[in-house]
């Protein structure tokens, strides 16, 4: 359990009392003035956990009723940890607490504070009521508030850790079961072979039987979560890919295998998850649980998949910045917006759907139905994130419009393979139609986080990048051909291919917005790539986020927004019909904060292409 490292002698505590004394001397004793001191103290404590204090925040109690709290502590981007309510010296704090509860304020973890007193309610009951004029009491109250975990959440966190440790053995047992059934179960043999052929035609011609088995295991281990946690009982009948995989699972269970019986040994995990999910109603908070399952599964069972594809989430603040930047560029350079008819938007590496959901929030409500139906597109090659993205995007639309509508813009497909395999069927007829529709669309915005082997832990792990005839040919005849470097292995990294692919995909006009490995900015091997980016685009903005731990020659701490070892950059590339081959040096500086770790550390870097 996380503990708050705070003592009466620590600077934030001393500063709190000093600030209060200054307010008293100035005669400023109203709530609006004195709560500033406590807000600063809470913020200082939040930094230890990488949490965020959202001040003057609205919280929905029902669809029609909101409450506005002085402070909301948020952890893991969306999960609410606690609420802060401030009062001044003149208020009767106990009476104010009852007034708030009469309005429907939650009693889960809420701290009521005045300059002299603190009352804390947790788990539906009062657990603290003391004067805080002495620093020892103040520290005690803050530790109680910050270290609290609802029993359901604490049980879930323990279960999730154990699940991550045990999923490898569980997966191995499923592999053994599948392989034994492939020898004796004729029905399963036929269906599995047919499914494997579909995967080879649709996803990767070299996909192994082991990888196909892994897809089945991903489905088996997670479909209960989709049905129950997210109240989506029809998921396996409604999702076009899940329908196909259920046919294989049904053949597997046609004899003696029972999925429920097999998963009994981790039933505690699902039950803990379900109990924790009952404590929250907000969908975005439930996504925290799903994200944890996603990470634990790949880190525990599919280590090489996590390594090659980069099972790491883009921080929400970066997604927000990129989407807002694209919308601003559309307005400034093209007199359009993300809501504009004809602006087709594609996330070619959608992951769990975060970029596209943020785009949907930026689109005008009146424009969203048409955009959702015809002009939003995304691809994902891995099954589990494909499922999650489908659910997340469909729920985002439901929240925005009040209507459920299946999202037909998502494709289970490898973005880089589409160009060289358009004559093939892609998994199901419906999926093939979606891929073809996307290919026929004039994509104006490409946005996302391409995979890159910054996450590959072992160069000798035989976990190298897949070859793609068309994209590799384009990289070779451009970036590689015009490079003066002797060693060009770095140009085989997927993020390099993503730049080449995107530059070709948006044709004559449009925007590419990627967050990627930043080595292309100044590394020798990328000189040809920089040269061609300058030719392909009329303007290029690069926001260097630093974070290259491997190049750190000082004793100073280096932080990375992804907790990886290579540098990261946000890249905004603009292609115009009328303006071409312009070489721009960007000297504008702009301080940006992407979370406490990197506060005041991010600047626009001077880029010479």
Question: Can you give keywords for this protein?
Answer:
609 residues, alpha/beta, tt1808, chain A, Rossmann fold, 3 domains, 8-stranded mixed β-sheet, 6-stranded mixed β-sheet, 21 helices, 14 strands, disordered C terminus
Count of spatially separate domains: 3
Instruction: Briefly note the structural class of the backbone.
Output: alpha/beta
Task: Indicate the proportion of strand residues.
Answer: 5-15%
**CATH architecture annotation of the largest domain:** 3-Layer(aba) Sandwich
Helix content: 40-55%
Give the CATH level 1 class of the largest domain: Alpha Beta
Cα distance, first to last residue? 48 Å
Q: What general form does the structure show?
A: globular
In the CATH hierarchy, the third-tier topology of the largest domain is known as: Rossmann fold
- The rounded Rg comes to 26 Å
How is the main sheet built? 8 strands, mixed
Strand order, largest beta sheet: 9-8-7-10-11-13-12-14
Number of helices: 21
Query: Which residues form runs of ≥5 with pLDDT under 50?
Result: 306-311, 454-464, 581-609
According to CATH, the homologous superfamily of the largest domain is Vaccinia Virus protein VP39
Compute the number of strand runs.
Answer: 14
Report the average pLDDT across residues. 80
Tell me about this structure:
The protein is of the alpha/beta class. The chain has 3 domains: 11-148, tt1808, chain A; 155-301, no CATH class; 316-596, Vaccinia Virus protein VP39 (Rossmann fold, 3-Layer(aba) Sandwich). The chain contains 21 helices and 14 strands. The strands form 2 sheets. An 8-stranded mixed sheet has the order 9-8-7-10-11-13-12-14, with helices on both faces. Strands 1-2-3-4-5-6 form a 6-stranded mixed sheet, with helices on both faces. The longest helix is centred in the first third of the chain and has 34 residues, at 151-184. The radius of gyration is 26 Å and the shape is globular. The protein starts with 10 loop residues before the first helix and ends in a 5-residue tail after the last strand.
């Amino acid at each position: 359990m996380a503990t708050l490292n705070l003592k009466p002698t620590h600077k934030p505590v001393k500063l709190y009392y000093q600030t209060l004394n200054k307010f008293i001397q100035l005669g400023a004793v109203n709530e609006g003035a004195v709560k500033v001191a406590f807000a600063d103290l809470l913020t200082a404590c939040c930094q230890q956990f990488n949490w965020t204090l959202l001040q003057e925040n609205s919280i929905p109690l029902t669809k029609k009723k909101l409450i506005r709290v002085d402070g909301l502590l948020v952890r893991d981007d969306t999960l609410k940890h606690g609420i802060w309510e401030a009062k001044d010296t003149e208020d009767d704090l106990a009476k104010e607490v009852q007034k708030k509860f009469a309005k429907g304020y939650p009693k889960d973890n809420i701290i009521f504070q005045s300059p002299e007193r603190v009352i804390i309610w947790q788990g539906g009951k009062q657990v603290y009521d003391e004067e805080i004029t002495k620093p020892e009491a103040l520290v005690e109250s803050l530790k109680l508030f910050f270290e609290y975990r609802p029993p359901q959440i604490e049980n879930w966190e323990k279960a999730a850790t154990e699940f991550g440790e045990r999923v490898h053995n569980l997966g191995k047992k499923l592999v053994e079961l599948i392989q034994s059934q492939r020898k004796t179960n004729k029905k399963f043999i036929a269906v599995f072979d047919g499914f494997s052929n579909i995967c080879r035609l649709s996803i990767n011609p070299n996909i192994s039987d082991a990888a196909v088995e892994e897809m089945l295991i991903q489905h088996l281990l997670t479909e209960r979560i989709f049905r129950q946690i997210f109240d989506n009982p029809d998921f396996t009948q409604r999702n076009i890919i899940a329908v196909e995989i259920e046919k294989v699972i049904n053949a597997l269970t046609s004899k003696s295998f029972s999925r429920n019986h097999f998963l009994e040994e981790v039933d505690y995990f699902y039950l803990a998850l379900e109990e924790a999910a009952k404590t929250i109603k907000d969908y975005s908070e439930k996504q925290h649980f799903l994200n944890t399952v996603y990470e634990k599964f790949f880190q525990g069972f599919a280590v090489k998949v996590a390594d090659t594809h980069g099972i790491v989430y883009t921080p929400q603040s970066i997604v927000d910045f990129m989407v807002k930047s694209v919308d601003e560029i559309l307005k400034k350079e093209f007199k359009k917006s993300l809501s504009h008819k004809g602006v087709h938007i594609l996330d070619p590496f959608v992951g769990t759907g975060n970029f596209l959901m943020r785009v949907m929030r930026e689109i005008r409500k009146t424009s969203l139905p048409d955009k959702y139906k015809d002009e939003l597109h995304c691809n994902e090659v891995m099954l589990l994130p494909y499922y999650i993205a489908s659910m997340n995007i469909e729920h985002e639309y439901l929240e925005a419009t009040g209507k459920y509508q299946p999202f037909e813009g998502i494709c289970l497909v490898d973005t880089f393979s589409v160009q060289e395999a358009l004559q093939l069927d892609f998994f199901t007829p419906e999926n093939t139609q979606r891929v073809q529709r996307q290919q026929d669309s004039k994509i104006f915005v490409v946005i996302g986080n391409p995979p890159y082997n910054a996450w590959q832990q072992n160069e000798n792990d035989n976990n190298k990048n897949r070859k793609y005839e068309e994209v590799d040919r384009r990289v070779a005849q451009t970036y590689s051909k015009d490079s003066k470097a002797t060693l060009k292995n770095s140009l085989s990294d997927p993020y390099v291919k993503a730049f080449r692919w995107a530059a070709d995909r948006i044709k004559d006009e449009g925007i590419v917005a990627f967050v990627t490995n930043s080595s292309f900015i100044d590394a020798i091997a990328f000189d040809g790539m920089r040269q061609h980016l300058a030719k392909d685009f009329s303007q290029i903005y690069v926001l260097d986020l630093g974070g290259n731990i491997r190049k750190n020659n000082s004793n100073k701490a280096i932080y990375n927004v992804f907790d990886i070892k290579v540098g990261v950059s946000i890249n905004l590339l603009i292609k115009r019909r009328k303006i071409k081959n312009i070489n721009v040096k960007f000297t504008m500086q702009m301080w940006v904060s992407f979370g406490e770790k990197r506060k005041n550390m991010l600047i626009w870097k001077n880029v010479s292409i």
